[in-house]
Model the fold of this input.
Amino acid sequence: CRWCQRETGASFALNALTFGLSALAVLAIRADGDLNPFRPRRGADRPAGLLREVAQGAAALRAHRAALRLVGADAMCSVLYGAQTVLLLLVSRQVGLGAQGYGYLFAAIGAGGLLGTALAGRVSRLPSRPVLAAALALAGAPTLLLAVVRWPAAAIVLTGLTGMGALLVEILTDTTLQRELDEDVFGRAYGIAFPAAIAGIVVGSVIAPGLAALLGAPGALIAVGGTVLGYALLFIRGADDPTAGPASQPAMADAVPAR
Done:
């Protein structure tokens, strides 16, 4: 219908407007009077070329196993989000919300993410390994419950909890990496971590249809949620805590959350 077409067009236009305003906000950033704070600064010891930078970023992560597990946690939540882009449509139909419920569920993810952002400052003062494991569990456990829930309100709440857990993981991962790695190593490591998060979204969205076809929607949700919970168990059993050494004040992560 024409009304639906107008509403769809308005939704895309509003989304494009928010990205445009975000771009303007980034352009307005000034650092110590520098009109271009994002310009690369290459020292004499910095390698030339993108591929060499990527290789050094991978080497930096291999040399810091705790940092590698942090990146894995962030990538795991990205896979979950990618799978949600497919599976939440099935959940919406399962609980009787229909196609429009897909938007409600993603709004719940956004609301949960805002709550996670508000909590991140408080929990960042705690030892990171148990907190990150708990955040992973907060993203994974509600996904398991979505496989069996039949009430719309419950589905919205559970989906919101996954958003809260995933954003907590992302924020705590970025700040812990900044806190524990020196600036040069962090820059190279994050050059791997951020693409890994983006790739995780792609992987999740690609495997979700196959899982749903093979296992059904409940089985796919159990597989994805169970994988996140499994990684949480591996993370909590890790040999070394990223916050075991003397830590400086956590800094704000340089990158905007990918989700």
Notes: The radius of gyration is 20 Å. The CA atoms of residues 108 and 160 lie 4 Å apart.
